[in-house]
Amino acid sequence: MGCKTVCMDGVGPRKTKVMVIGEAPGATEDEAGVPFIGRSGKLVRDALLNAGIDPDTCYITNAVNCRPPENKTPTSAQIRECRRWVQERIKQVKPKYVLLLGNVPMESLLGFTGIKKARGNPIERDGIIYLPTYHPAYVLRDPRAEAPFTADLKLFARIIREGGMPAEEDLNVVLVNSPSKIRQMLDDLKGTVSYDLETNDLYPWDVPLTPKEIASGVPIPNKKQIVSLQLGTRKAQYIILLNHPENPVPFTEDEKQDLITRIDKRMRNCYIVTHNGKFDALWMLVHFGVRWFPSFDTMLAHYILDENSLHTLKVLPQVFLGAMPYDINVEEKKGGGSLPAFIKYGAKDVYYTRKLRFVFGKMLDEDTAVKRVFEEILMPCVELFVEAEYHGVYIDTERMDEVEIYLQEKIDEAEVELNRYSSKVVWDTSTKSFVDRKTVAIGDIGVNKRSQYQELNWGSSQQLGAFLYNYLKLPIIEKTEGGAPSTSESVLLRTDHKIARALLDYRAAQKQLTAFIDGWRRYLVDSRLHPSFKLHGTVTGRLSCENPNLQQVPRDPKIRTLITAPPGWTMIEADLSQIEMRIAAELSGDKALLEAYRLGIDVHWLTAMREIGRAGAMKDEVIATVEALTQKKGWSFGDAIDELIRIGPKAAEAIGKEMGIPWKETRKKAKAINFGYLYGMWWKKFRIYARDNYGVDITDLDAQNSRIAYFELYSDLPQWHNRQRRKARVDGYVRSLTGRKRRLPDAVRNDGSYDAQAAERQAINSPVQSFANDINLMAAIQLRKEFGPDVLHIVGTVHDAILFEVRNDMIEVIYKRILEVMSRPELFDVFRIRLSVPIEAEASIGPWGAGVDLETWRAKQRPAVRTPPMRPAKRPVGKRRLAM
DNA sequence: AACGGGAGCGCG
DNA sequence: AAAGCGCGCTCCCGTT
Predict the structure, then answer these.
(1) How many angstroms from the chain centroid is the CA of residue A858?
(2) Whose CA is closest to A191, among A272, A282, A134?
(3) CA angle A440-A442-A443, nearest 5°?
(4) Do residues A66 and A6 make contact, with C-beta atoms less than 8 angstroms apart?
(5) C7 closest protein residue (CA to C1')
(6) What is the three-state SS of A45-84?
């Protein structure tokens, strides 16, 4: 077979209880003639040790014992050839427990494949217990396989410890289908109660079909339903089949509502435990109007204890409780399978959720700072975001329709222009190239998706790349990570051909239409979107948002102002001003930054002016602006720069607008420099950034000097960077000011690898980003508490900003309070946070992205009050005129 | 037919 | 040799 070692032997005691069987020798093993010594082998040994199994007591071998050609996965024939040998070894070693690593040993010894389904499920044959799990090489390739892999080894260890197949859990499943069972359940609802829902969709609202969908004949979706409710107590797991199609004795709607009301009364006195309870609480609120908020959520607990790994209930019971896998498929969860399997699954979910609460509770007790974040921020946010999602965000649907038409026209225009360039050719899908249209019969072009010849699809980067660089023969400017010629915006901006402009227009309009207008429609219910916020969505503590993502709405007012408030209410957006820079100032103790903030100087502006001063750029503009603002002549460049720093960006931008000087752009550019250098950007990237965003071609030397100058200006930053890097290397984690941990195992390697360096940069960024987010969340929690839903709704957060819907008569009061709370939330006291840098917030009133500050807003209100109607008003007296 | 990765691009 | 961080959505395309 072309390998060095033929029929490689296993290693370990020739008679032992435990055997581990891998796939086949790799190159390393083949060379040395010993199995399990490469990266995969090491992973297995470490994993065994971690699970409490000494690898030296195991007999370790492979299912195929010669290295297959080119290190390929062994074929069935090769497996068959070696099977006799492996079985021989099993007879000699006489193991009681055999761990099978991947498909190959599973096929060899159990006779079937499909490791994804089979893993974690022990099988007993001829008195031997086989446990299949992933092959370590797969775990090395795909980090998502790590959790199930360690879970399987934990189960393997449990089987060895207990001396046989794992005992069934002490479940006590009660199907609640009679008055006596209901009474039994209600009596038992006390103390710690877990609950969980199975639903037939993730979005709890029925969404009407759009006209487009109706026209295209899509099937009418199922009505959104809660399939079942499960409750877990110390004694039992109660299953309530609210809408399971196989339920032989269904409840009437009245009975359901009545039952939920009775449970609700009991739940008020319980300690409620959930796994991702934000989901279940939202559904209960939408479908039954009850507020079943958790006191303890196991998903969020695991998230705060280990932000890096998966938090799904699929693996946590296996990892922390040595459970066997018990997941069923999605269709079964929606009620499309057998009832007994469904009931068992539902029971285990609440059983294990309740058990995990105690495990994670203990783990949280070991780190009071982390526990405080969990209790004071994460858990309160569950309620806050259930309400935010329930309420939703209001959309100006009339204008949305207009914008849709406008964008479609834009796309059509761009396509007409683009097609002018490509009219002579068609795309040949077999050769991935363009051929002369005349050589192809018209009837052969794009008949269906499978046709060999297709019209050029401008949305395909593969086709576009071939068109630009093979057909038009334009020079390749950059390649993508995957090696294909790039057609990105950055490249197109540097492409010297008229087609580039049309492509950019096409892409921009296409993106806005598909991602935002079309993308929103399927979530639109009574003019509102109900995005889902993930409290566990990022490794830093920020939230993520999806379905749709409110946090990526373009700043383009065309799109952003579609998000607004309904009549009688007004949108207020409030954000923490330059918050990350302020936190960096605080954490680094940088004297220049702290002094700037103490004096109320805008740091992005400061950086901009210093950079201009250093490079000697924009001399005329600087002096002209200062002359105009001070009404004095004869400024030197240096003095003018200092004066401009003192004056600040607001005044400069205003007068710049009149004089045609882009001070606003200048500040924006500096903002990117600040963030870039602050978080470890290198001068090379700065050069690229300057080119792509501002069309400025600076030299390498200039780029290097700008970086040097930056750290001369903020000269305490490098020491802070080094502190963070060292902490990550030594401790394996860094913390934010609220106590959140960012675990960085890659930094511990300290081997200068790309991953290690990336981890060190994360050690700098994480505490900053994380604390900024926590301030924002603290303020949101407090403002929700201070103002009830009769006057204020939080509709979402965007990292350092909060979006509110405020009742019109409360705008002034709430606006002022928002700014106070955001600049110092009361939770600072609980966390004993005292900052030396001032925190400031800004807010704007009106549709998102087009709001104004309070003063401007007031000025707009006056005419409405001062000018009484000529005729007596028909409107009821006392009702104020609507704003906006 | 469903899934997953890559490319590209929207945001803070 | 490599050196901002953190996300989600749409599309295409290859894979199962």
Answers:
(1) 39
(2) A272
(3) 110
(4) yes
(5) A544
(6) HHHHHHCCCCHHHEEEEECCCCCCHHHCCCCHHHHHHHHH
Lookup: nucleotide whose C1' is closest to A512 CA: B10
CA dihedral A617, A619, A623, A625 (to 10 degrees): -50
In this model, does residue A869 exceed pLDDT 60? no
Q: So what's the pLDDT on residue A874?
A: 41
Instruction: Work out the end-to-end distance of chain A between its first and last CA atoms, rounded to an integer number of angstroms.
Output: 79
Q: Which two tokens stand for residue A572?
A: 């207020």
DSSP H or E segment with residue A359: helix A339-365
Q: Give me A561's structure tokens.
A: 């102002």
Yes or no: say if A741 and A733 are a contact pair by the CB < 8 Å rule.
Answer: yes
Residue A69: pLDDT over 80: no
- CA proximity to A680, closest of A590, A584, A554: A584
Lowest mean pLDDT among A208-222, A620-634, A651-665: A208-222
Q: From A458, A389, A467, A359, select the one nearest A418 (Cα to Cα).
A: A458
Which protein residue lies nearest to nucleotide B5, measured between its Cα and the C1' atom?
A482
CA of A544 to C1' of C2 (A): 29
Q: What is the nearest nucleotide to A675, using C1' and CA?
A: C4
Give the separation between CA A254 and CA A671, rounded to whole angstroms: 59
Predicted structure pTM score: 0.93
Higher local confidence (pLDDT), A299 or A443: A299
Mean pLDDT in residue range A483-508: 90
pLDDT-derived band of residue A866, with 50, 70 and 90 as boundaries? low
CA A765 to chain centre: 17
Q: What is the DSSP letter of A867?
A: S
Rounded distance, CA A720 to CA A700, Å?
Answer: 26
Nearest nucleotide from residue A575 CA, by C1' atom: B12
**Closest protein residue to C10 (Cα–C1'):** A515
User: What are the structure tokens assigned to A248, written together?
Assistant: 């032989």
Nearest nt (C1') from A682 Cα:
C3
Per-residue model confidence as pLDDT tens digits over A613-626: 988 999 999 999 99
Q: How far is CA A71 from the centre of its chain?
A: 36
The answer to whether the beta carbons of residues A101 and A47 sit under 8 Å apart is: no
Q: Find and give the residue nearest to C2, measured CA to C1'.
A: A754
Rounded to the nearest 10°, the torsion over CA A133, A139, A145, A147 is 80
Q: Give me the mean pLDDT over the A793-813 stretch.
A: 97
- Bridge partners, residue A532, by sequence: A546
Residue A440 CA to nucleotide C14 C1', Å?
26
SS3 A363: helix
Q: Residue A512: its pLDDT value, please?
A: 93
pLDDT in tens, A74-92: 888 889 989 999 999 999 9
> Average pLDDT of A816-826?
98
- Judge whether residue A150 has pLDDT over 80: yes
Distance, Å, A470 CA → C7 C1': 35
**What percent of chain A is modeled with pLDDT above 70?**
97
User: For residues A501-515, b (16+ Cβ closer than 10 Å) or e, as one string?
Assistant: ebbebbbbbbebbeb
| Separation between the CA of A486 and the C1’ of B8 (whole angstroms) | 10
Contact (Cβ atoms closer than 8 angstroms) between residue A241 and residue A250: yes
| Residue A354 clears pLDDT 80, i.e. is over it | yes
Which H or E run includes A803?
A: strand A801-807
- Strand B at less than 7 A from CB of A580: no
